[in-house]
Design a protein that fits this description.
mainly beta
Length: 226
C-alpha cells in the first residue's frame, strides 16, 4: 500500500507508479505532483493544462490524458510531460444521451495494432487513433455507471462500476470474471496496471490518497486484503 497527500489540499483524480515515483494529477491545477514511494513530496511539474485522467502507456512510452473540461479530446504527452498532440473522438454515431459522459480513457496494444479505449457512463468503445469508432466492447448493466475501464493484457480488462453508492471492481480474464465490492469508507478514483498486476487509487476523507493492490497472480484480492 502507498499513501500520499497533495500539498494543495485537493483530491487526486489520477495517479500512477513509474520509475519508483508516484505521479498524481488533481484535475484542477496545471501541475503533476511527484512523490517517492513512501509518500514524501518530491517535486511539482508544470504542465499545459489540468488533467483529470492520466495514464502511462508502456508499449508506446508516453502518457494519455483527459483535460479538465476538454470534452472527448484525448491528449498525448511525452515522458517530460510535454503535449505531443491529441485525438478528438468522433462520437457522431453514438447516442450520447444513451451512453453518457466520457469517464475514462486508455490505450490497448493488440495483435492488429494500437487502439484507444474510451469508457462512457453506460458503454465502452474501441477507437482508432484517427478518432473513429471501431466497435463496442461492453455495456453497463441495469443502473450501473461505468467509472473506470482498462485493458491490461490479451483478453484481460478491469472495470469499475457504481450503483446505488456502491462501487464494484471486476476483472475479466478470457471471459472469466472476478469481482470485489469497494469498502464504503473508500472512494475509487482510478484503476491502473503495472505489468500483470492491477492497482487502484482510492480517496479517504477527500484529501488522503491510497494506492492499493487489486489483482495479483491471477486473483482479485478480497476487500479486507486491500
Amino acid at each position: 500500500m502507498y499513501r500520499f497527500m497533495l500539498n494543495n489540499s485537493l483530491a487526486a483524480t489520477s495517479a500512477l507508479i513509474r520509475n519508483d515515483h508516484i505521479y498524481a494529477a488533481d484535475g484542477k491545477e496545471c501541475n503533476i505532483h511527484v512523490f517517492d514511494l513512501c509518500g514524501n513530496f518530491s517535486s511539482r511539474i508544470c504542465v499545459t493544462r489540468a488533467y483529470s485522467r492520466l495514464r502511462y502507456n508502456e508499449g508506446e512510452c508516453n502518457f494519455t490524458a483527459l483535460g479538465c473540461g476538454c470534452g472527448n479530446r484525448i491528449y498525448y504527452i511525452d515522458t517530460s510531460f510535454n503535449e505531443l498532440g491529441y485525438t478528438q473522438l468522433s462520437t457522431d454515431c453514438l447516442q450520447l444521451r444513451a451512453v453518457g459522459a466520457l469517464t475514462d480513457i486508455s490505450t490497448a496494444n493488440m495483435a492488429d495494432g494500437n487502439f484507444i479505449v474510451a469508457a462512457f457512463e453506460r458503454a465502452v468503445y474501441l477507437f482508432g487513433y484517427d478518432g473513429k469508432q471501431i466497435r463496442e466492447i461492453c455495456r453497463a448493466d441495469g443502473c450501473e455507471t461505468i467509472t473506470d475501464f482498462l485493458v491490461f493484457g490479451a483478453e484481460k480488462y478491469v472495470i469499475g462500476t457504481r450503483s446505488n453508492d456502491v462501487s464494484v471492481i471486476t476483472v475479466s480474464d478470457n471471459g472469466e470474471k472476478q469481482s470485489v465490492i469497494v469498502d464504503s469508507r473508500l472512494s475509487l478514483r482510478l484503476l491502473f496496471a503495472s505489468g500483470s498486476n492491477v492497482f487502484g487509487l482510492f480517496g479517504h476523507g477527500y484529501i488522503y490518497n491510497r494506492i492499493l493492490p487489486i489483482y495479483s497472480n491471477g486473483s482479485i484480492l478480497r476487500r479486507q486484503d486491500f
